[in-house]
Write a structure and sequence with these properties.
The chain is of the alpha+beta class and about 525 residues long. The chain has 2 domains: about 325 residues, no CATH class; about 140 residues, no CATH class. It has 16 helices and 8 strands. α2 runs antiparallel to α4 and α7 packs antiparallel against α10. The C terminus is likely disordered.
C-alpha cells in the first residue's frame, strides 16, 4: 500500500474519530443501556404498584374502560399496547379534546385484571430518556446529527481496516503490557476494534438507514415522483388506513372474536392495536404483531368492524419487502431476536466500543503532546471535551438513575426533574474541569463517583423496596432484582477503572518521567 495514501487515510481516521468521538460515545453508551430499556422501565415503576392476579379483561372491556370518563375524540385514535414480560400492564393512549397548546392525548398504564389506571408512562421517563439520547440526543432534528455521525463512523471503520490490514490478525493478541503507555493504548485500541468489527459495521450501516432514510425519501419524492410523496409510499407498499366517518353508531362489533382469531392465526397476541372511528359504523381495528419463533416476520392486519371484512393484511403470505427488510435491520440493531443473553453480548460489545473511543482520543492526545509546535489550547480543549463527553456522561447518567428512584411519584413534572438532574450534573462536571489540571485523576474521580452514586441507588432501592423486590421475584417478576444486579456490575466496573487510573497516576508521580508527566498533563 502506498505510504502517502496510508499517511493521509491515517490522518483522516484520526481527525474524524476525534471530531465525532463525543457524540459517538453518547450513542454507544446510551444505546448499550437502552438495550434493557424495558427492564429499566419496569424497575422504575413496578415496585410502587401491586401486580393483580386473575383472569385478564377482554380487549373490548379494556377499550371501554380506557375511554370511560375522558373527553375521547372517536374520529382520532385509541391505541393499546398489550402487556409483555417486562411490562405486565396495558399501555394506553387516548386522543382527547384539548385546547391549543395542551396535550392531544392521555397516556396511562392499565391493570389487565382490574382495569384500574396504574400510572402515567411519562412519569417514569428514565428509560425513554436514555433511549432518546441514543436515537436523537434528545434535541430537535437530532436524528439527522446522529445520521451524519454514523456516516463518519462508517468511514472511520473502513479507514481503520485499511490502516491495520497487513497486521490486523498477526498482531491480534499482541499487548505490550511492559512497554510505554502509547504502545499499550494502541494495542488495546486495535484489539477492541478488530473484535467488535462485525458488530460496529452492522451498527454503522443500520444507523445510517434509520437516521438518513428520510433524506433519501425526500430526494426520491422530489426527483422521481415530482413531489408526490404518497405515490412513493404506495409503490413502497405502505397502505394508509383512513376510514371515512359515517356518523352512525356501530352494532355489536366482534372486537374480541377478531382479536382472538388474529392471535390464533399468528400464534401470538398483537403487540399493538389502533382503533379508528371507535363507536362508529365505519370503525376499523388495526393490529400489529410479531410472529412467534420467527426471526423477523411481523404481521399487520386491519378489519372493518361493520362486517368483519379484512381491509389490510400484510404477513408472510402478503409480504411487503421494504417493511420486512427494515424490520430485519431493526432486529439486528436492537438485538431483540435471540433472548436476554444476546443482549448481554451486545452490551459488552457496546461498552467495548466506548473504550475504543476513549483510547483513540488518548492516542491522539499523546501524539500531539510530543509535538513541540502543538497548541496548548487545542490540547486542553480536546482533553476537556473527552472528559466531559465520557466521564461526564457516565456521572450524569448515574445521577439520573438516582433521581428516578428518589423523586416521589406524586411529584409534579417528575420526568422533567429527572432530566434536570442529568443536565445539571453534566454542567457541574464542565464547570469543575476549569479548576482541575490533573485530568487523569479527574477522570478517575468521575468514574469512582459514578460507582458510588450507583451503589447509593442500590442502597436506596433496598431500603425503600427490598421486601417488595423479593416478593415480585417469588411471583416470577425477576426484572427488579435483575436490574439491580446490572447496576451493581456497572458500579464495580466503574470503580475498578477509576482505581486503575488512580494507581497509574501514583506510579507516574513516583517515577517522575518527563514523557509520562507530559501525558498526565494532557490526558
Amino acid at each position: 500500500m502506498d505510504k502517502e495514501f496510508l499517511k493521509r487515510i491515517t490522518d483522516a481516521h484520526s481527525w474524524l474519530g476525534l471530531i465525532i468521538s463525543g457524540l459517538l460515545f453518547i450513542i454507544f453508551f446510551a444505546g448499550s443501556i437502552a438495550l434493557f430499556r424495558d427492564e429499566i422501565n419496569q424497575w422504575s415503576f413496578q415496585p410502587h404498584y401491586e401486580v393483580a392476579q386473575g383472569e385478564k379483561l377482554a380487549i373490548s372491556e379494556v377499550m371501554e374502560k380506557a375511554i370511560s370518563g375522558r373527553k375521547f375524540t372517536p374520529k382520532e385514535h385509541l391505541i393499546i399496547i398489550t402487556p409483555s414480560d417486562n411490562l405486565p400492564y396495558y399501555t394506553i393512549y387516548v386522543d382527547v379534546e384539548h385546547e391549543e397548546g395542551e396535550k392531544d392525548y392521555v397516556g396511562f398504564f392499565m391493570d389487565p385484571v382490574s382495569g384500574e389506571e396504574v400510572a402515567a408512562p411519562d412519569d417514569y421517563f428514565l428509560a425513554t430518556f436514555i433511549y432518546a439520547l441514543h436515537v436523537n440526543l434528545n434535541i430537535p432534528n437530532g436524528s439527522y446529527i446522529i445520521g451524519f455521525v454514523t456516516l463518519f463512523f462508517f468511514f472511520a471503520l473502513i479507514s481503520g481496516i485499511f490502516i491495520h490490514a497487513r497486521k490486523m490478525f498477526s498482531n491480534f493478541f499482541k499487548y505490550r503490557a511492559e512497554k510505554q503507555k502509547r504502545s499499550q493504548l494502541l494495542d488495546m485500541h486495535n484489539i477492541v476494534g478488530v473484535m467488535s468489527l462485525p458488530f460496529t459495521i452492522m451498527y454503522a450501516i443500520s444507523g445510517l438507514i434509520f437516521n438518513l432514510v428520510i433524506i433519501y425519501q425526500i430526494a426520491f419524492a422530489v426527483v422521481l415522483y415530482q413531489g408526490d410523496q404518497q405515490a412513493l409510499l404506495d409503490d413502497a407498499g405502505y397502505q394508509a388506513v383512513e376510514p371515512q366517518w359515517l356518523d352512525k353508531p356501530w352494532k355489536s362489533p366482534n372486537i374480541d372474536q377478531i382479536y382472538a382469531a388474529t392471535t390464533d392465526k399468528y400464534n401470538t397476541e398483537p403487540r399493538m392495536i389502533r382503533m379508528y372511528n371507535y363507536g362508529d359504523e365505519s370503525a376499523v381495528m388495526h393490529m400489529f404483531g410479531q410472529v412467534k419463533d420467527d426471526f423477523a416476520e411481523e404481521y399487520e392486519v386491519a378489519y372493518n368492524l361493520s362486517n368483519d371484512s379484512p381491509l389490510l393484511i400484510k404477513d408472510s403470505a402478503n409480504p411487503n419487502t421494504l417493511v420486512q427488510g427494515l424490520h430485519v435491520i431493526s432486529r439486528l440493531h436492537f438485538g431483540n431476536y435471540a433472548g436476554f443473553d444476546l443482549r448481554i453480548i451486545y452490551f459488552i460489545l457496546g461498552i467495548g466500543v466506548c473504550g475504543l473511543i476513549i483510547t483513540g482520543n488518548m492516542l491522539w492526545l499523546e501524539k500531539r503532546a510530543r509535538q513541540r509546535n502543538q497548541s496548548e489550547k487545542t490540547l486542553k480543549f480536546v482533553t476537556n471535551f473527552t472528559l466531559l463527553s465520557t466521564g461526564g456522561i457516565v456521572l450524569a447518567t448515574s445521577m439520573a438513575f438516582l433521581a428516578e428512584r428518589l423523586l416521589p411519584i406524586t411529584f409534579s413534572q417528575r420526568e422533567d426533574y429527572m432530566v434536570y438532574s442529568f443536565v445539571l450534573s453534566l454542567a457541574l462536571v464542565a464547570f469543575s474541569l476549569i479548576f482541575n489540571h490533573n485530568k487523569k485523576l479527574f477522570l478517575s474521580l468521575l468514574l469512582r463517583g459514578s460507582a458510588l452514586i450507583l451503589l447509593l441507588v442500590l442502597i436506596v432501592d433496598w431500603v425503600m423496596f427490598g421486601s417488595k423486590g423479593v416478593m415480585l421475584w417469588q411471583q416470577g417478576i425477576k426484572t427488579i432484582i435483575g436490574t439491580e444486579i446490572g447496576i451493581m456490575v456497572m458500579a464495580l466496573l466503574f470503580y475498578y477503572c477509576g482505581a486503575k487510573l488512580k494507581n497509574k497516576q501514583s506510579r507516574v508521580s513516583v517515577n517522575d518521567s518527563d514523557d509520562e508527566l507530559l501525558a498526565v498533563r494532557t490526558i
